Amino acid sequence: MTDDDKPGLIGAIKEKLIATKEKWAKDGRLLTGQAAERSERLPPGQRLVKDWPVLDLGVQPSVPTDVWRLDVDGAVVNPLSWGWQEFMAQPQVDDVSDIHCVTAWSRYDNRWTGVSAQYLLALVQPRPEARHVVLHAYDGYTTNVTLENFAAPDVVIAHGWEGRPLSREHGGPVRLIVPQYYFWKSAKWLKRIEFRADDKPGFWEVRGYHNEGDPWKEDRYS
Ligand SMILES: Nc1nc2c(c(=O)[nH]1)N[C@H]1C(S)=C(S)[C@@H](COP(=O)(O)O)O[C@H]1N2
Ligand SMILES: [Mo]
């Protein structure tokens, strides 16, 4: 992080935003009480947007590609640490998926470019006891997914969006994309992927948000 990234005025403003979102969780805001079939493209309570909102904790860390690293460790046979060149030298995939944010906006057809989670799993080989994955980010944010969800074919460690480098505000240089879950599981400014036997709820999960976050079950809050 550089100096201008330290939580300052914006950080203080976002404290309020975080408190508001915590209250939403407590009050069960936006819940329709209706589950939907996965064949429905738009999950219950969501509305479509064409623009792409930015959500963060008040800090958008500056991580130039020459200092960016991704560490993959924990309950794996082959831990690894990639710098930018090594990451970009891995087999690349393109995957189009929809975004569903818990604040009720959805955005269809986002084309992500990067390394697939399935490829990463084949490289690092989770140990038999590994059941959970914790994503750590450069802004201090964390979020958790099950190993089963992480292993879905559309999960991408993404550096590109619509054929362009992922912008800093949206988590560049590298973020995770987990399309089957609310977007808070898709960690921006990805720094570390930790495999674990036990679960470890992340930033929003300990603040009243659902541990899994399946939009079709309306898993907004815990
Ligand atoms: N590192 C990090 N990742 C994060 C967040 C964050 O604050 N920090 N916010 C999450 C939330 S709540 C959402 S909705 C999405 C927002 O991504 P976007 O700004 O690209 O729309 O990022 C998720 N990933
Ligand atoms: Mo969110």
Automatic annotation (TrEMBL):
SUPFAM superfamilies: Oxidoreductase molybdopterin-binding domain. Residues 62-204 form the Oxidoreductase molybdopterin-binding domain. InterPro entries: OxRdtase_Mopterin-bd_dom, OxRdtase_Mopterin-bd_sf. Transmembrane segments: none annotated. It comes from the Bacteria. This is Sulfite oxidase-like oxidoreductase. It comes from Zavarzinia aquatilis.
